[in-house]
Amino acid sequence: MTHKFVGLGKDGEKIYLYNRDKKRVRQVLWGDWLLIDENRLNDGMGAGWLPVKWGRKKDWYIKEEHTIDKRPLEIIFVDVGQGDGAVLITPETAQEERIMIIDAGEGGNMFAFLNGRFKAYRGFDFEAAIITHPDMDHYLGFEDIFADHDIGFKTIYHSGLVERPVSGYFEKLGGVTIDPATGDKYLEDLATSTADIEDIFGDSSVIGRFVFPRVMNKAVSNPKITDFKMLSTFHGSVENERTYMPGFAPSDGRDYTIEVLGPVVEFDQNNTPRLRRISSDYGMTKNGHSVILRLTYGNFKILFGGDLNVPAEKFLLKHYTGRQSFPTRSNPDYIPMIIEARKWFESEVMKVCHHGSEKVTDAFMEAVNPACFVISSGDQEGHVHPRPDLLGRLGKFGRGESPVILSTELQRSTREREDKKLVDQLQKDIKELASNPSDELQQSISEDIRTLAKTNVDVYGAIYLKTDGERLITAFKIEAESDLDKWFYFEYEIDSSGELSLT
Fold this sequence. Notes:
Layout: E1 2-6, E2 15-18, E3 24-28, E4 33-36, E5 49-54, E6 58-63, E7 67-68, E8 73-77, E9 85-89, E10 99-104, H1 109-118, E11 124-131, H2 136-139, H3 142-147, E12 151-158, E13 177-178, E14 185-187, H4 194-201, H5 211-220, E15 228-230, E16 237-239, E17 242-244, E18 256-262, E19 266-267, E20 273-276, H6 282-288, E21 292-297, E22 300-304, H7 310-321, H8 334-345, E23 349-351, H9 362-368, E24 372-375, H10 388-397, E25 404-407, H11 408-411, E26 413-414, H12 420-435, H13 439-453, E27 457-459, E28 463-467, E29 471-477, E30 487-494, E31 500-502
Parallel strand pairs: 10-11, 11-12, 12-15, 22-23, 23-24, 24-25
Antiparallel strand pairs: 1-4, 1-7, 2-3, 4-5, 5-6, 8-9, 8-28, 9-10, 13-14, 14-20, 16-17, 18-21, 19-20, 21-22, 26-27, 28-29, 29-30, 30-31
Helix pairs in contact: 4-5, 6-7, 7-8, 8-9, 12-13
């Protein structure tokens, strides 16, 4: 059997699979993988139709004009609840395909997604896991993934700031040193190599109750994970004064690149790499040194903003524009700074920093100037993410007349937990079981209890981004449970004059 991919409909046209009667049975999305059943190529459907094997038992069809031979690059912002978790799938196929997991949330949603999408439980080797920084809602979801020795990663990347199994705050990161010449404070005990990670986390007897060390110990103990690297503006592939993920620089000959914009490494008098303590607050410093990535494919750029905050964004803007101080909005130097910063940060799509926290700068949003914002957040958290005031600011600083704001939390579809009819029936059946026991009634009660215990999520809020460099869509599943009306998406393109339009 051969395969093709679902094409992108013209002018927003939806694409469907059909049954033998040429009736629509399922909406499909650009880039979906199609297994063409060559044994049914001449089964009477006529010219222009391709037989598709969908799942194990469904023999359906698709119009040949709605298929393509090369798939788009795909990013899935997984609904991990509170936290971040994204999966990047490159447009190559077979052995050239690369799959990267950028953060994994705090719970089990990422593990479940990987098993469902890639059949990881059968054994799978991914290109990379990227832990943007050591916050639980970014790394804890990796624990079960790393603990599964059927799942491997070529490399695990991190920010160089790893929490050691010791008490304290900055002590976890190796402590703070003061530069004798400037008085600035730095984090110098960075974990840069596999040997560093194995030395810090290889001995399970010292892990105790420390969570990040426990997760990293699982990774060190996995025989299919053998390489650990810091990823920063210094630790990567440097070309033309920009830094890229190893294997994804311009010289690697791909149609796309992945640039590393943070953390920003500085050096002491002995040329030793270090990270500035950008805040006296421990959380703001480790968050502020998140791994920041910008993917470029053709006309489109996507920025992964980690958990940046106000001091971190000001630090980055000053660094990339060569300024010693941060100008206020009324300062004549403010607009020139924004224009210069856009050379580094401007992107059509932005994974919003810190789950929609309000602790971000207008200047950074102006520099990124995206047409689409993606927010990853959850229900059960005390931070009120995404913040309502932040949503207003995103609309204000977004590109175009109608900036799009997508949220895994807001795109999720839930139902009321209470099912009065089922509860009443259960109470009736339990009374009946007490006076007239039967295996059949007991089984019915057990099934009803399992139904009540199920999650109240009907549709998870995963957000899908797909692009071939010329067009880009952001899509999510519609709340209504219908195979014919399954997806809603926004389509973007850039015209010959360089203007972005939402079609």
